Amino acid sequence: MGAAQRPAEPAGTEWPARLHVVTGKGGTGKTSVAAALALALAAGGRRTLLVEVEGRQGIAQLFDADPFPYAEQHLTDAADGGEVRALAVDAEEALLEYLDMFYKLGGAGRALRKLGAIDFATTIAPGLRDVLLTGKVKEATTRTLGQRRAYDAVVLDAPPTGRIARFLNVTAETARLARVGPIKTQSEGVAALLRSPMTAVHVVTLLEEMPVQETVDAITDFTSLGFPVGRIIVNAARPPAPVGSTVTAAELTAGLLAAGLPADDETVSGLATEARDQSVRRELEDSLRTDLAELGLPLVELPLLPDGVDRAGLDRLAAALVRAA
């Protein structure tokens, strides 16, 4: 699909950023949410890029695809003619690209890889790895084709909340330490993009105590470091508990008998215990929902997918994100 055929603006006035950084505690489904967001932002004939930087090939696994090379490639079509492309950023390949771009090393850079110099460099200077990864994301976000951006939006499946602040801030630290040269220039450019209105950092959580606490901590860090926080995305959410939802033993007995099922004391007692446990759980979820709302940020709730995260499930999540715009 040619660039001239795509709309000029990203989908949804409430998703105005061009770079969407998606983080969350491990196990909250941030990769699935990042993929669904890429689908949502591509709807209507737009083109988005879904990027991962952790070397897990999580996107390929999610879409049941072969591992991605270090190259942008078609991942899937989105609603109404949109396209999602994918990129798995590799630090070593990004360094080779960097050496060729700024120092014209080309084949010499590949020779350095054979000697192990690139692995050595990224090991003794761990921050360099993150500078290279975020630098590639910045390049894709700001790349132009003629008079247009190459992508209407870029979605980054970022490291989890425990590491995200350091990952995003490493370019600012590198820019401060590097006095001159391409590394300083690139680091300053990335740091500026990540703190600009072009970027939004979204945090994925579950209505569980540890993920919610990590969400609160991460948002505090983002605010202190100057990163623009987008939305809190509650994944696998159930609706708030209805008022007066407590079930009595008599009601359970009547319900079982009406359904033609055994209503002996053991069965009723077991169901009553389960009902109490569920009630306590729903009360906790409602309390955590209130804690998140008190942060004063836009809150999006995505439904629990009983059948797991397949393509139909991703489309359902994408539709919910579109409605949230």
Automatic annotation (TrEMBL):
Gene3D superfamilies linked to this entry: P-loop containing nucleotide triphosphate hydrolases
Domain ArsA/GET3 Anion-transporting ATPase-like as annotated: residue spans: 20-173
InterPro entries on file: ArsA/GET3_ATPase-like, ATPase_ArsA/GET3, P-loop_NTPase
Gene Ontology molecular function: ATP binding; ATP hydrolysis activity
Name used for this protein in its record: Anion-transporting ATPase
